[in-house]
Amino acid sequence: MGKIILEYLDGNRIYVCTKCHIHISNYKSRISKNFRGGIGQAFLFEKGINYHVGQPEDKDLMTGKHIVQDVICNGCNKVIGWKYVLRIIKAYRESEKYKEGKIIIERHYIRRIKWS
Q1: How far apart are CA 19 and CA 6, in angstroms?
Q2: CB 29 within 8 A of CB 103
Q3: Listed residue (67, 72, 68) closest to 48, CA to CA
Q4: Burial of 105 by CB count in 10 Å (0-12 exposed, 13-18 middle, 19+ buried)?
């Protein structure tokens, strides 16, 4: 594996990894905070940085069956959430299609900086 180049976000309202403190996303990219992860509240983001994904797998989540990939922090290599995989064919449930390509980060694994 080559050298990992970390990115940093400009401005305020940044979410960082609680373990290694690298930037993950920002307030503007947050779509919703009404999600549940394995250990509590989770946020849905349009996009993020400084992460890579695991292999796609079928998972039964609270809203039904989804194809997801683990979201893994590039700084500390910890699983911090998951990404909904884009499907070439229809989503299992059409009402859940808006999540495809988005990422969920569990609140436990991120904290806010520059929030004033």
Answers
A1: 15
A2: no
A3: 72
A4: buried
82's CB contacts (< 8 A; 6+ apart) are 59, 68, 69, 70, 71, 103, 104
Q: Pinpoint the alpha helices (H) of 2-112.
A: none
pLDDT per position as a tens digit, 75-100: 999 999 999 887 654 546 677 778 88
For the chain, what is the largest distance between any 2 Cα atoms, rounded to a whole number of angstroms?
A: 43
- Radius of gyration of the chain measured on its C-alpha atoms: 14
Which helix (H) or strand (E) covers residue 10, if one does? none
HSE value, Cβ hemisphere, 13 Å, CA-based, for 32: 9
**Tokens describing residue 106:** 């569990």
Q: 32-67: per-residue pLDDT in tens? A: 999 998 899 999 999 999 999 999 998 887 777 788
8 Cβ contact partners less than 8 Å away, ≥ 6 residues apart:
22, 23
H or E element in which residue 112 lies: strand 110-113
